[in-house]
Amino acid sequence: MRSAKGTYSVGDRLPMRGNPTISRADVAAFMHQAAHGSEWGRRSAVITD
Hints:
By secondary structure, the protein is α+β, with helices and mostly antiparallel strands. It has one helix spanning 24-35; strands at residues 9-11, 46-48.
C-alpha cells in the first residue's frame, strides 16, 4: 500500500499518459474535501498523482 503524498491533480479533464496511479489516502482526502465543499457537487472528477 502506498502512503499519501498530499499532492495530487484534480479536474474535469486531465491529460494522462501511461498508467497513472494515486494512493488510497490521497483519494480519501479528496473525497472528504469534495463531500464537505460545494466545488465538486454534481460534477465528475478525474484525480491523479
